[in-house]
């Protein structure tokens, strides 16, 4: 038994258009989405199916907006795709109730359409997610590399997290620029917040120190914890004549001494005892 | 305790994930802080090697139990060009990627057991094990 494709399509579209309330009710039930969202989608689909050239631009626009909003709200991509796919289940019940061969054949065509739309939401969803991640990476890159002034002529870079090539580049540029801007001759690179120092991180650090030296500044690396020191020695990395300190405080006092600043202890109370001769 | 985990190494972000997973498992089986840092650093070196030299690969992280002490085993596999001269690759200061040339030789010292299988055109497999003390 063959059914002309055109007739099948017409039949399923008719069914889709005529059973709005039933479809929406079932669709809401299966997908668990808000009825308003689905009503908008239904209206857009209705317009698209009713138009001569089958223009789905509006439907896609609506779906894209929906996926992006859901990506931001932290829904899973499957949730979003399920919302679209569940229309099939709702429509299938309508087609089954109709029972005609046209309706069933038309349903196959319609479900292909829904599949395409579902995949489209998936793609938009991942694109939106990717964009969020990219934005965050850029923000992190900017946020996580402050160069702070500790004293006249002494600047510090507290490094936190993973040091990769991109971040080291940013750190190095910022540090060198700050050295020029503030006319500092001492820089402290603090790696207390760096979880692991492998050869790549070490190489990045060494390059930064050498670059700062070329500009006439002296670098101290501080925040080397015992386990990091252990690992660096075992790996065989040599820091050469670069000054390293265990804590930022040590590095600061070293830099202060080098730049000729003397720190006086807290003023002690002086008690003078004078004996008076009677 | 936990089933072996296989992780892909395709981007710099994956190297970070490998490091984090290694650290959490190492802490879980009770490695000391120094040993944790050592195995994490070795994992970082080897994962980056797979990424830089072979364009990517994968790692199998496995907790070894049943022995006298628990251990952590990491198997890095890639389908890259392979290493023609293993002796040379393990020489300190030898690097084909402009690095310090300490990654492979240093990793060997950071772990308790180190096994490197490679041939030109056949990829590379590095197995490292760290035992709890």
TrEMBL record, chain A:
It comes from the Bacteria. Pfam families: RsbRD_N (PF14361), STAS (PF01740). Residues 144-255 form the STAS domain. It comes from Microbispora rosea. This is RsbT co-antagonist protein RsbR. Keywords: Phosphoprotein.
UniProtKB/TrEMBL annotation, chain B:
InterPro entries: Anti-sigma-factor_SerPK, HATPase_C_sf, HATPase_dom. It comes from the Bacteria. Residues 34-133 form the Histidine kinase/HSP90-like ATPase domain. One of its GO terms (molecular function) is protein serine/threonine kinase activity. Transmembrane segments: none annotated. Pfam families: HATPase_c. Gene3D superfamilies: Histidine kinase-like ATPase, C-terminal domain (3.30.565.10). Keywords: Kinase, Serine/threonine-protein kinase, Transferase. This is Serine/threonine-protein kinase RsbT. It comes from Microbispora rosea.
């Amino acid at each position: 038994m063959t059914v002309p494709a055109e007739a099948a399509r017409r039949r399923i579209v008719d069914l889709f258009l005529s059973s709005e309330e039933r479809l929406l009710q079932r669709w809401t039930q299966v997908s668990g989405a808000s009825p308003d969202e689905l009503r908008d989608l239904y209206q857009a689909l209705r317009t698209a199916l009713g138009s001569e050239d089958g223009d789905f631009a509006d439907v896609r626009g609506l779906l894209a907006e929906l996926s992006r909003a859901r990506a931001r709200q932290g829904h899973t991509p499957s949730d979003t795709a399920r919302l679209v796919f569940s229309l099939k289940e709702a429509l299938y019940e309508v087609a089954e109730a109709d029972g005609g061969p046209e309706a069933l054949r038309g349903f196959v065509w319609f479900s292909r359409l829904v599949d395409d739309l579902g995949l489209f939401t998936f793609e938009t969803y991942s694109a939106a997610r990717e964009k969020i991640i990219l934005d965050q990476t850029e923000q992190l890159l900017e946020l996580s590399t402050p160069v702070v002034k500790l004293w006249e002529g002494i600047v510090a870079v507290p490094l936190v997290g993973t040091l990769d090539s991109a971040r080291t580049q940013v750190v190095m540029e910022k540090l060198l620029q700050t050295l020029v801007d503030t006319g500092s001759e001492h820089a402290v690179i603090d790696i207390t917040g760096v979880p692991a120092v492998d050869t790549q991180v070490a190489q990045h650090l060494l390059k930064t120190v050498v670059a700062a030296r070329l500009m006439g500044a002296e670098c101290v690396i501080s925040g080397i914890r015992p386990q990091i020191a252990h690992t660096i020695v075992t790996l065989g990395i040599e820091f050469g004549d670069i000054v390293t300190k265990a804590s930022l405080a040590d590095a600061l006092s070293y830099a202060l001494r080098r730049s000729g600043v003397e720190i006086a202890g807290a003023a002690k109370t002086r008690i003078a005892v004078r004996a008076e001769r009677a | 305790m936990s089933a072996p985990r296989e992780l892909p190494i395709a981007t710099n972000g994956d190297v970070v994930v490998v490091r984090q997973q290694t650290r959490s498992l190492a802490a879980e089986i009770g490695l000391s802080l120094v040993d944790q840092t050592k195995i994490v650093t070795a994992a970082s070196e080897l994962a980056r090697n797979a990424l830089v030299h072979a364009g990517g690969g994968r790692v199998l992280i496995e907790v070894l139990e049943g022995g006298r002490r628990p251990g952590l085993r990491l198997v890095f596999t890639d389908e890259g060009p392979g290493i023609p001269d293993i002796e040379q690759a393990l020489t300190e200061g030898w690097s084909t990627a402009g690095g310090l040339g300490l990654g492979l030789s240093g990793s060997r010292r950071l772990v308790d057991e180190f096994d490197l299988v490679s041939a030109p055109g056949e990829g590379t497999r590095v197995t490292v094990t760290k035992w709890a003390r």
